Amino acid sequence: MADPLRILAWPAGDPSDLNPYVRRMYGAFRAPAASVTAFRPLMRRIPAADIFHIHWPEGIFEGSGSNNPAIVAAKAARVLNAARGIRRSGGKLVVTAHNVTPHRDLTGWRHRVWHAYHARLLGQIDHLIGLSAASLERYRAAHPAIAAVAGTIIPHPHYREDYPAILVPKRARPGRFPTVSGCSA
Fold first, then answer.
1. What φ, ψ does residue 151 adopt, rounded to 5°?
2. Contacts of 119 (CB under 8 A, 6+ apart)
3. What pTM, to 2 d.p., does this model score?
């Protein structure tokens, strides 16, 4: 039997905390054919992997230390070092083209960190995943450095079975869902 495909995934972890697209994607990888290990930008040791898969490179601005320029810069450096190390060991960097640009307003130090980090990250990408052919083309057009990088389409599914039909305000995360049935989330 062949060795399992080792995937270092960001984000990954507790399925109940993941976006449904991510949960479904990694749910398709099963032992013994594959293993998925969660990457965290500030983890002490980067595990060996055949694929380092990043969904949202802008994740450096999320979580602990997201308002601290030094911590965000450290996260960016760790992501780049992880990608470089995995590629040096024969692995590949795969990025899902969810967003052409981050949703967060990048001004001041965030703008500077993002552009330096993202330019370096783009230079290491071995494969792109697009949610549709159009989204993949928009991503490539916005980032000419990766125009020739191979890509695969993994369609964005509907989430009808992932969320309740009526959103109960207590279960909503503020700012994440539109108003439903007159209730503001």
1. -140, 160
2. 145
3. 0.82
